[in-house]
Every structure is written in C-alpha cells, then in structure tokens.
Amino acid sequence: MMKKKGFAIVVVLFFAFSIAIILFFMAQSNSNLAFQNKQTIYQMQAYYLAHSAMQHTKLQLKLLPKETYDFFALNGSGNPYQSVDSSMYPPLAMGAFSKEKTSYDLFVEGKAPDDQFPYGGKYWVEDMKLHGSHDLMKMVQDGYRIKVKSTIDGGRNKSFEDELEEVVIVSRFTGGLN
Amino acid sequence: MIKFRSSGITFVEVMLAFLILGMVFLPIFTFLTGSVKETEKFYVETVAISRAKFIMDTLMFQIPWRCIRHGNPAKIDDPLLTDGVDDFLAKAVPKMFGDGVGPSGGVYTADGIFTCRKGFKYRARLKVVDLDYDSTSSNPIVFSVPVPGKDPDDTRFDINKLTSKDADDKYNLIKKLVVQVKWSNSKGKDPKDDKYARSLFLVGFKSNLDN
Q1: Domain count within chain B
Q2: Chain A neighbors of B145, CB-CB under 8 A
Q3: ipTM of the predicted structure?
C-alpha cells in the first residue's frame, strides 16, 4: 500500500508555484503595457518632427525650385538643404531635454512661453538627390529624392529617432508640388 | 466506557485552515486589485495617446495652414470663409478637442474636454506660435540653397522676400503647434482639478504648403 505521508506538501508547493506563475505573468504584462505606451509616445513625437522636416523641405523646394535645380545642374556636391535644420534657428530649436521642460503646461498661465518646448529634439535633411527631370514638354518638372531625420530627447532613456524618405516632384519655374 | 477515535478534522483545524488560506489570498487579491487599477491607468493613457495622435494628424495633414491661428488656446477658423473648409471644421474640431470649442462668431477655440467610455475625463488644448521671424528679427528663419558659382547672399532669402503677409498681417511660413492632452486617473474628475493629473505633449511645425 502506498504511503500518504508528505502528500500535503506536494499539493501546497504545486498550488504556491501556480499562483507565483500567474502573478509573475500579470506583473510582466503590466510592465510591458507601460513600456509600450511610453515607446508609442516617443515614437509619435519623433514621427511628427520627421513630418515637420518633410514639410519644411517641401516648402523650401516650393519657394526655391530653380535654385535647387541649379545646385545639381552645376554639379554642386553634398546636401543642398543643410539649411533645413531645426537646430539652426532659435524659434525652431527645441534643444536638449532640461528640467524646466518637465513643468511645461499649456493649461497653467506662464508655464508655456512661446520660445519653450515640452521636450527636446531636432530635425534635419539627411540627404537630397535629383531623381530626374522632365523638360520635353511645356511643364518643366524635377523629381527629388528627399530623406529627412528627426530625434527627440525626453530625458534619460527617453529618446527616439525617426526618418522619412519621399520622392517629390516640383515644377521648376512655378514651384508647384506634386 | 465509550472511546472516541482521534481521527477527523476538528473545528479549530478548519478555522486554522481558513485563516492560513485567507493569509495567502489577501496579498494575492491586493495584487490583483492593484493590477486591475494599473491596467485601467494604461487604458486611460492609451485613450490620451490616441486622441493626441488624432488631433496632430488632423492639424498636420488635413486642416489648411491658414485656418490654424496663433494663441494659447489657438483659434481655428477659415479667414477665406470657404464653404467646404467651414463644413470640415464644424465636424472635425469638436471631434478633436471635445466639448467647449464653440464656435463663437465662426471661430473655434482649440481647448475642450471629453470623457472616455469608462468615465475618465480628459482636456485637450492646442497652442500655436506664428514663426514670423523675418529680416526684421534678430533670429530670422531663412531659406537658402548654395548654388555653385553664385554669391551665397544671392541665394539666401528672408521670409518677407518670399511671401506676402498672411491673414494675421504677418510674414509667416511656418507655425509651431503644441498639443497637450491632460487627464486624471480618478474616474469622473476634471484633470484641471487634479494635482496628480498626467499629460502628454506632441510638437509639430506646419509649413505653408496650401497654395
């Protein structure tokens, strides 16, 4: 006949182990949620800065289409849009993260001055190439491959980078974008 | 004389078993309650993230540049009074910011309050800064392309050399947008009245690509 002594401890250990496993996975699932939410926020912040860069680039292309074409036609080297860099202009320069940024609040008077930002970051044009020109018909158009980058700085371990690449077609003499 | 067998479970043993079970389950239930609350907090944060994204997407990619006007809170209206744009703003702005956006005299205020399905309250606000830093400014925003063989000054332009004045009588081509969504983790509480209210921010620069 089998001895039943010590059976209780097996049951208790099994029970305790099961509970520990459940609690462990619940705690892990919650910390995953917190991490993902944070990552989503930083990712979004970098994403909108990258789109800001692309809009800024398109604006310059719209305003200076002939000059941009001339740069490539006259064998200019490097990146012609180095001036599209948010850190070069104080009104656009978000700077690095600082403690003052943590108190930024649109709902409290005086806590959101015009020259301040709630987090740090920058955007710039990483690369620009003349993709092709179309000047056989009346409408003279140039296509450019544009690559922009952005980075945000929300403090220690709170940074994120993003990049966008687009082909933009512009009318060389009217600045009309397609 | 009757003899009782000592096997079986006494009342005291049963009570003791319950006590031990209770002591084991108490921290478990505490943990579970805390966990449910945490999950709810993440849900609330997710709603705020999703709303902030919706607001910024609409501002950056859908609402015309001219309609987003300087201020904290910003004003939203169409200075050209285009029917289609007015109809779009009438539908979009309350969906973006919630209640309390107006319109008042055809102008919307980008500051509203909304409640999620679980009953948590959120406030959303937009601040817009006109970056009209032209040649009269000490920090002008310039547009330039270094054309080989040309004097750099000939291909460097201040804003006022490139555009006419906008509806606000400014030489301006880029607007700074800051969106804040603020929420309270206490159900039904206005984040304005909660000193532990949480916030998230999104910043974007919208260039005038309208024309």
Answers
A1: 1
A2: 60, 64, 67-68, 70-71, 80-81, 83
A3: 0.88
A34 touches chain B (CB under 8 A): yes
Cα–Cα dist A148/A169, whole Å: 16
Distance between CA atoms of residues B7 and B112, nearest Å: 72
Mean pLDDT over each residue of chain A, to the nearest integer? 89
> How far is it, in rounded angstroms, from Cα B38 to Cα B20?
28
Do the Cβ atoms of A59 and B45 come within 8 Å?
no
Quick: pLDDT tens for B133-172.
888 888 899 999 999 999 998 999 999 989 888 888 999 9
In a domain, B139, yes or no: no
Cβ-defined contact of A37 to B42 (cutoff 8 Å): yes
**Nearest chain A residue to B148, by CA:** A76
Q: Is residue B194 part of a domain?
A: yes
Torsion angle of C-alpha atoms B58, B60, B61, B62, degrees rounded to 10: 50
- B156 is a domain residue: no
Alpha-carbon gap, residue B35 to B32, rounded angstroms: 5
The residue range of the domain holding B90 is 11-131+172-207
Q: Is there a domain that residue B144 lies in?
A: no
Instruction: Confirm or reject contact between B133 and chain A (CB < 8 A).
Output: yes
